[in-house]
């Protein structure tokens, strides 16, 4: 069992995937409090207590599930670019049960630069090496940027679900891509 997020570096040498640190708190609060980030992920900016709870729960995924989320950091400056990886949120969506769920978010000032794809390629390569399962995700159909990232990563639509009163696409990526 893996108890901490293992550090990873991307092939393009721009991003380091690392565990969360207390020093990331301000950047996390800014990112998840931004309505541009949350527009398709929950719909509303999050309050500091909720962001802090998600920060702690993301760190807690590793010792409980053996996989989890990383911080996506600029390799040169260690500046937080975003975060993501694999999760299990017990969403009561039958198509997600038993599968790691992929997720990613990038701070708006770094959008359009390929960071989500680059970081998630590394996260999914780790998954292919350490897990034996396909990976699934849910994405709001109107979130074109996230759907494009998912497609580049090898995810394909397998259905939809109603979650928190929103119809979402369910996408899947086979083990090994």
Helix content: 25-40%
Average pLDDT taken over every residue: 95
How would the global form be characterised? globular
Main sheet attributes: strand count, strand direction, barrel closure: 5 strands, antiparallel
Fourth-level CATH superfamily = Gcn5-related N-acetyltransferase (GNAT)
Strand content: 25-35%
Q: How many strands?
A: 8
Strand order of the largest sheet: 1-2-3-4-5
| SSE class | alpha+beta
At the third CATH level, what is the topology name?
Aminopeptidase
Second CATH tier, the architecture: 3-Layer(aba) Sandwich
Domain tally: 1
Give the tags:
177 residues; alpha+beta; Aminopeptidase; five-stranded antiparallel sheet; three-stranded antiparallel sheet; 8 strands; 31% helix; 27% strand; globular
Tell me what you see in this structure:
By secondary structure, the protein is an alpha+beta fold. The protein has a single domain, classed as Gcn5-related N-acetyltransferase (GNAT) (Aminopeptidase). It has helices at residues 25-32, 35-38, 48-65, 115-130, 144-152; strands at 8-9, 15-18, 69-74, 80-87, 101-106, 135-139, 156-163, 166-173. The strands form two sheets. Strands 1-2-3-4-5 form a five-stranded antiparallel beta sheet, with helices on both faces. A three-stranded antiparallel beta sheet has the order 6-8-7, covered by helices on one side. α1 (25-32) packs across α3 (48-65). The longest helix is centred in the first third of the chain and has 18 residues, at 48-65. The protein is globular, with a radius of gyration of 15 Å. The two termini are 23 Å apart. The model has no long low-confidence stretch (mean pLDDT 95).
